[in-house]
Design goal:
461 residues; mainly beta; eleven-stranded mixed β-sheet; five-stranded antiparallel β-sheet; 29 strands; elongated; binds zinc ion
Length: 461
């Protein structure tokens, strides 16, 4: 890696040049610059060549993460436009507007993908202006959502906008949630929380908006659900993945291992989960249903990974996320059906923490269990294993569906259901956990519950 710097004609405009090769892939390369007092506008532009790596079907991918003297001002992950403008009132999507504090700022080039054999030559242009601004700050007022009380609420926990690499803006994303009649929606742009203020202004009595981001690291992706502050994601810069998970939990959020068996490098940079100390380590949530069930989603392997962790006595909760990046092309998206005390962000998060949810593209399921002590629990809960009887109610199944009762990873019972119905079944004595799947004729999951855990809380990690 080589670097040079030159001032152009204006004292507040300069260029940094450098060269990278594949040895510099998956690094965070800092460039510091001084912002003087009175600055009103910052413009940054990264240009690099070649974009398409010789002999590959993939582009090299460099992204910018910007820090002012006090903290992170955002990133715009995997967007073809790697230029940005920030003023007190305006910022390019992905970044946060606000006063330009005088002092040392740092822009990092995040080298998500640098493929051999080429050298990449880049230029980083920095232009700082102190001209007066005639802009007005957009007013994003957080909308209120009316209480509805205890019940089932349906929503998406994973989606993107053009604040990172999606094709649509925040209002279009919110309209998608309304078109599908969702009760809540979470926006999880890659490595930034810049869209959340606008998102929250678009909530209403029909739709709760929830905070989040997708921590898009070089060796795995994780969702920070319910967290509205920027979360450090750059593993190896003084932070480990278990520490990141702990920080997300300390902020009241939920750390979810996202699409762990998705295709990885170089197709999708860092998309499959490689953190050996987080198998599952201190993670307790895993996204087993990401986007379409069928095809190359890796969902089947994700489900198997989850079942394997359950068999090792980890009390893992499964989630679904569409990971939507633009107008949906199919109508059978997997959503989360959450049993919460109310339609508030904290109640939805609490219910997800406890595993009080199932994942479905249509079928409705209610799974509970009772024992001879007359203890009665729902999915996500633990029950002591004295003659446990399972109770399942279903609706909106299809003739071609099969309902499977899974105990310790194996099928113990199958039903070819009517559109609605119910069954009760005694669990075998050796049962440690039990879930219910609804599968299509092709074998794709159309719904899956979270587990009922058997054996008392002490039996579970
Ligand atoms: Zn991802
Ligand atoms: Zn995503």
């Amino acid at each position: 890696m080589t670097r040079t710097e030159k001032n152009l004609e204006h004292p507040m405009r300069f260029e940094l040049r450098g060269t990278l090769n594949d040895q510099n892939s998956k690094q965070h390369i800092p460039h510091e610059f001084a912002v003087p007092a009175g600055a009103t506008k910052l413009f940054l532009k990264l240009e690099y060549s070649p974009h398409r790596a010789t002999g590959h079907d993939y582009d090299n991918m460099l992204c910018l993460t910007l820090f002012d003297p006090e903290g992170c001002r955002g990133a715009r992950h995997n967007n073809p436009d790697q230029s940005l403008t920030i003023t007190e009132f305006f910022a390019t999507p992905g970044y946060t507007p606000g006063k330009l504090q005088a002092g040392v700022w740092t822009v990092f080039i995040d080298t998500h993908r640098v493929l051999p054999p080429d050298d990449i030559h880049y230029t980083l242009e920095i232009d700082i202006s102190s001209e007066p601004l005639d802009e007005i700050a957009p007013q994003w007022t957080k909308a209120t959502v009316k209480a509805r009380g205890r019940g089932w609420y349906r929503g998406d926990l994973h989606g993107h906008t053009l604040h990172s690499d999606a094709s649509w803006d925040v209002p279009e994303f919110v309209q998608y949630a309304r078109n599908y009649g969702l009760d809540f929606v979470t926006l999880t742009d890659h490595n930034t929380v810049s869209p959340l203020a606008q998102l929250d202004s678009l909530a209403g009595d029909d739709l709760l908006t929830m905070g989040g981001s997708e921590l898009t690291t070089y060796h795995g992706h994780a969702l920070a659900l319910g967290v509205r502050q920027w979360q450090e994601w750059r593993v190896g810069t003084g932070i480990t993945m278990p520490e990141i998970a702990r920080q997300v939990k300390d902020k009241g959020g939920i750390f979810v291992i996202a699409h762990p068996k998705s295709m990885g490098d170089p197709d999708c940079t860092g998309c499959d989960w490689h953190y050996l100390e987080m198998m599952p380590g201190n993670a307790r949530h895993i996204e087993v249903w990401n986007g379409d069930w069928a095809g190359e989603s890796g969902n089947k392997k994700g489900l198997d990974l989850w079942y394997g962790w359950l068999n090792k006595s980890y009390r893992m909760v499964a989630t679904a996320g569409t990971d939507i990046h633009g107008p949906p092309s199919n109508s059978s998206l997997g959503f989360n059906y959450v049993f919460a005390d109310d339609l508030t962000e904290s109640d939805i998060l609490n219910a997800i923490k406890q595993g009080h949810l199932y994942l479905s593209s249509g079928p409705r399921l209610e799974l509970s269990a009772r024992n001879v002590r007359l203890e009665h629990v729902m999915m996500g809960d633990v029950i002591r294993g004295d003659d446990v009887t399972l109770s399942l109610h279903w609706q909106e199944c299809q003739n071609s569906d099969v309902i499977r009762i899974i105990v310790n990873g194996g099928v113990i019972h199958e039903v070819f259901p009517a559109e609605r119905g119910m069954l009760e079944r005694a669990l075998p004595d050796e049962a440690d956990w039990c879930v219910v799947e609804v599968r299509s004729k092709k074998g794709d999951v159309r719904a899956v519950t979270n587990p009922i855990f058997v054996g008392g809380a002490a039996a579970w990690r």
